[in-house]
Write a structure and sequence with these properties.
The chain has eight helices and no strands. The protein is mostly helical.
Length: 185
């Protein structure tokens, strides 16, 4: 049985009161949702927290899933929307923390990267900064394409666009990233 048909059966069971059946969906999609969250959060702890929140929200909203698209597509939409909202909240918190601390420059040492080559760390930070500076729709397209390795057709479904529009969006996002990278060098 394919995942799509299997997912619909599991969802019916959940909606009919079998709460334990939800663990099957969590196990099936947890890694994919985590990778997607990592693409937005860039921190394993934050991504793990967000992944948990996504599955809680998806469970609460499961009755709104109509089955018009694959469950994974619906779950990606929930994940992307929550990731974008979480990023906004983090930026607001960071701004308040910046001013509350009275620091004009903050240097944060991240011990997870202590053993990595400094150039590699700088490149990762530059890519993260550039990715975060893209418009939300372009950032979504890059994350879904790169981290989740979705095809252009799947990307179009998740983002609610035509395949042509999603290809164009992805092209613009990559082009913008390349321009920003060149400016950094």
């Amino acid at each position: 049985m394919n995942h799509q048909a299997d997912d619909k059966i599991i969802i019916e069971q959940i909606l009919n009161g079998d709460k334990q059946a939800y663990t099957l969906l969590v196990k099936r999609y947890q890694q994919k949702v985590f990778r997607l969250c990592m693409g937005f959060m860039h921190n394993p702890d934050d991504a793990a927290d967000l992944t948990q929140e996504v599955f809680i929200k998806a469970y609460q909203k499961l009755s709104t899933y109509k089955g018009d698209s694959k469950f994974s597509t619906w779950l990606y939409r929930v994940s992307v929307n929550m990731a974008i909202n979480s990023q906004r909240k983090q930026k607001i918190r960071a701004t308040f923390n910046f001013y509350d601390n009275g620091n004009e420059t903050q240097q944060i040492a991240d011990t997870r990267y202590a053993d990595e080559n400094i150039n590699e760390l700088e490149q990762k930070q530059m890519v993260k900064k550039i990715l975060d500076s893209l418009p939300a729709s372009q950032r979504k397209a890059i994350v879904l394409s790169h981290y989740e390795e979705l095809s252009n057709k799947e990307l179009a479904e998740v983002m609610g666009l035509s395949v042509k529009a999603s290809e164009s969006l992805l092209y613009r996002a990559r082009s913008n990233m390349q321009k920003m990278i060149k400016k950094q060098k």
